[in-house]
Amino acid sequence: MKNINKQNLITIVAIIFAAVLIFFALNYSKKAPAKIDNIEDTITQEDSVNNVSVVDGKQIIEIRAKGGFHPVHSIAKANIPTILRVDTNGTFDCSSIIRIPSMDISQNLPMSGTTDIDIGTQKVATIQGTCGMGMYPFDIKFE
Fold first, then answer.
1. Tens of pLDDT along 75-123?
2. Is the per-residue pLDDT at 55 higher than 80?
3. In whole angstroms, what is the distance from residue 121 CA to residue 70 CA?
4. Backbone phi, then psi, for 39, in 5-degree steps?
5. How far from the centroid of its chain's Cα atoms is residue 43's Cα?
6. Measured between alpha carbons, how far apart are the two ends of the chain, in Å?
7. Residue 9 in 3-state DSSP?
8. Contact indicator for 61, 85 with CB cutoff of 8 Å
9. CA-CA to 72 of 20 to 30 Å: which in 26, 36, 37, 126?
10. CATH for 39-142?
11. Mean pLDDT of the 10-15 span
């Protein structure tokens, strides 16, 4: 076996390191969500759960924030004063910040607890929100 000089050894180690990084990137990274042009076409009744109630004339939409927002899709009634209630329990990732850009809402959430966000009376439309980094989307369809 020939002697391996220092430059060749560095090259071999760099190639092995790059191969390992590529392997982990391909096998353990999250794929970015596909861009949706018309969110209304993608929401069905099966995607949403019964997370909406009316109390004292106000509609309350409850979602959980930890590793994203759950449920991702909510269906609510239009033309009713609405509160978005966000529950956290040990949330420390980027879903500890909730953003609804169309309403200029950006709010830090506590690590554990309940946060009520008044989103007013919505017309028939769909509002979209995300976590602080834009990785975890959610939407509320008002009918």
1. 999 999 999 999 999 999 999 999 999 999 999 999 999 999 999 999 9
2. yes
3. 22
4. -60, -30
5. 16
6. 75
7. helix
8. yes
9. 26
10. 2.60.40.420
11. 83
Residue 138: HSE in the Cβ half-sphere, 13 Å Cα cutoff = 28
- Number of helices and strands (H, E) in the chain? 1, 10
Whole-number Cα distances in Å, 125 to 27, 133, 143: 38, 24, 7
d(CA 66, CA 90): 8
Residue-level length of the chain: 143
Closest listed residue to residue 137, CA positions, set 59, 70, 62: 70
Judged by DSSP in three states, 49 sits in: coil
- Residue 52, SS3 per DSSP: strand
The tokens for 79 are 């033309």
pTM: 0.67
Q: Side chain identity at 4, as an amino acid letter?
A: I
In b/e form, how buried is each residue of 81-108, taking b as 16+ CB within 10 angstroms?
ebebebbbeebebbbbbbbbeeeeeeee
- Give the tokens for residue 34: 């596909």
**91 vs 81: CA distance, rounded Å:** 28
- From the number of C-beta atoms within 10 Å of its C-beta (0-12, 13-18, 19+), residue 22 rates as exposed
By the 8 A CB rule, do 83 and 116 touch?
Answer: yes
pLDDT at 43: 44
